[in-house]
Design brief:
The protein has about 270 residues and is mainly alpha-helical. Helix content is about 65%, strand content about 0%. Helix 3 runs parallel beside helix 7 and helix 5 packs across helix 6. It is globular.
């Protein structure tokens, strides 16, 4: 565990980028060989749009990273935050509690709020317009949404009192988890169901991308499934019945055009 802490305390940006690229590549190859849905689409054009948004997400987080670093350092130095107030525990339990709480605030909570607040939904909508959900969809976030999610992540770091090594560990796991649960892959149903009791499985998350309520407003989690189950937002839908997208943006020129996607938050159309 000490080796893990040491590594994530000083993890180079190049390593974090390699993890992101490797994840996309691995799941891309797997879903190409064993797809859940046989989409009829221009795969590289679709990937190009989503990778553009992945790059803008990286740029936003890189430019604002110094804030996260300052907040994490301040929390630890001033003994502020839940982790700082808890009694001494093993480092493994400490890390698990930190990851659970960061996932609650930095993933589940922000996701739920984006669905409930109209202004925030206009930015998050870009993610839901994708009618061909695959691993490249994972970071299909408008730059404005990337800022919103950064704010919640920073709030999580402050309230949880998270040291920077744990923040980097959380972000690494979060990236791989979202690539996994968006991937166009078909796990055996029993395996997927079993996984969904602990982490967000592909079938579980794809229900969230179904275009009909209440399914769109469910399964908000990213790493752990406990929060959806605990707060009553967990839903199940057979994979064969899932239809991806948003009914207000089903036309290709609306959901498969980069220029239009960037303008969606500022358009009058709901």
């Amino acid at each position: 565990m000490d080796t893990l802490i040491s590594y994530f305390s000083t993890i180079p940006s190049s390593h974090r980028s390699l993890i992101l690229v490797s994840g996309i590549t691995i799941f891309w190859l797997i879903e190409n060989a064993f797809p859940l849905f046989n989409f009829k689409y221009r795969r590289f054009h679709h990937a190009g749009i989503n990778i553009f948004f992945t790059l803008t997400t990286i740029i936003v987080n890189f430019c604002l990273a110094f804030i996260l670093l300052q907040v994490a350092d301040w929390s630890v130095k001033n003994n502020f935050g839940i982790l700082q107030w808890l009694p001494q525990m093993s480092i493994g339990i400490y890390a698990l509690v930190g990851l659970l709480l960061l996932d609650l605030i930095g993933a589940y909570l922000v996701h739920l709020v984006e669905h409930k607040v109209k202004l925030l939904w206009r930015f998050h909508l870009i993610h839901h317009t994708d009618t061909w959900i695959d691993t490249t969809t994972a970071n299909r976030h408008h730059p404005g949404e990337s800022v919103i999610r950064f704010v919640f992540t920073t709030l999580g770091v402050l309230l949880v009192g998270t040291p920077m090594w744990l923040v980097f560990l959380y972000q690494t796991i979060s990236v791989v988890a979202t690539q996994f649960n968006h991937a166009n892959i078909a796990l055996p149903k029993k395996v997927d169901t079993l996984l969904s009791y602990f982490i967000v499985s592909p079938d579980m998350h794809k229900v969230h991308h179904h275009y009909v309520l209440p399914y769109t407003d469910s399964n908000y989690g990213n790493i752990f499934s406990i929060w959806d189950r605990l707060f009553g937002t967990f839903r199940v839908l057979p994979r064969e019945e899932i239809v991806f997208g948003v009914d207000s943006h089903f036309e290709p020129e609306e959901h498969n055009n980069l220029g239009n996607l960037l303008k969606i938050p500022f358009q009058k159309k709901k």
